[in-house]
Amino acid sequence: MSIARPSRAVVSGTIFAVLMVVGAALPSSYIVQRPGPVLDVTSANDGESLVTLTGTDTYDSETSFLMTTVSALGNADAGISGAVVAGALLTSDEVVPVRALYPVEVSSSQISEQNAELMTNSQDTAAAVAFEEAGLEVSMTLTVAGVPTGSPAEGIVEEGDVLRAIATEDRSATVATFRQLSDFLDATEPGTEVRLMVERDGSEQTLTTLTRGFEPDVTGWVHPGSALGVYVSVTDVQLPAQATYAVEGIGGPSAGTMFTLAIYDDVTPGSLGGDAVIAGTGAIAWDGEVEVIGGIRHKLAGASAAGATDFLAPAYNCPETIGYEPDGLNIWAVRTIDEAIGAVKAIGEGKTDSLTPCSALPSVGQEG
């Protein structure tokens, strides 16, 4: 009796198929990003409020502020399986090379620690900015963390100097918060001579330096006023009330703007945005600037699915929203917490003609 043997073609095909299956199951060098959870900062999550304030008066509000997130499949150590990557290519999910996001020397545990720290910092900053914006007393210590090469302050201001006051020929201001320093500089032309009152090695000194201007951002916008040209660290933050956050498993700084708006709404009478459902993103800086974030296209999709009608986006990120605008979602550009508060009020009143849609901002190199 003869036994039929499989042909070489069949054997080769079988081996290829097995290798394909094994390859699809193995980690790839890609990460898949997609819309993550959308949380209402102003309501309870599993029976617990996301943000709770103690030590100050608070007021009820009907405005809903939604923080948006991005979910990632894969991590800095290894990408997601090839099968998932292949499936993602057929959807609106985004496939990104692992090394485009994380350098080879950084582990996933280090990234998790960094993101947790960034979230904590964003919460602290949000509370300080919101309280100060509402007129409550906030103080902090501003210390020079470094002076970049080529700065007008190089050789004059030193690392470790504690900033106490600033003055020009016709104006002066104490520096008890980053916002106070920023507001003063916003009204100061580049190249202006300023006097800095600093504490150095336990003694007070007066330093004289020149301010410098800003470079245009990706939309061609130039920050008003000028900068000192030094790096500043913030410590010893004193707040008039305590903000407690119940956010688990979410890292990064990008919820800062929505935290700030929710806290500001909490400590001021009335509903800041009426009964509107407003989503958004953006890291918040100590001076109230809304800073660049990542993954905005996925955050837009998540906000739309969660029922938001309006979305506040960092102006710097606006070029990334083009082509990814969900139907029925208004996307407004904001650069500062003042602009964000003004936008929320306008949305609540149905008077948005004065707001700037992201689609109206050009990218550098584009006409507009």
Protein architecture, described:
With 368 residues, the protein is of the alpha+beta class. Helices cover 28% and strands 26% of the residues. It contains 9 helices and 18 strands. The protein has helices spanning 8-25, 82-88, 98-101, 108-133, 178-186, 256-267, 296-305, 318-321, 337-349; strands at 30-40, 44-45, 48-49, 51-54, 64-73, 94-97, 139-146, 162-167, 172-174, 193-200, 203-210, 231-238, 242-245, 277-280, 283-284, 290-291, 310-314, 330-334. A 6-stranded mixed beta sheet has the order 6-1-5-14-17-18. Strands 7, 8, 9, 10, 11 and 12 form a 6-stranded antiparallel beta sheet that branches. A hairpin with a 4-residue loop joins strand 8 and strand 9. Helix 4 (108-133) packs parallel to helix 6. The protein is globular. It starts with 7 loop residues before the first helix and ends in a 19-residue tail after the last helix. Residues 10-26 have low confidence and may be disordered.
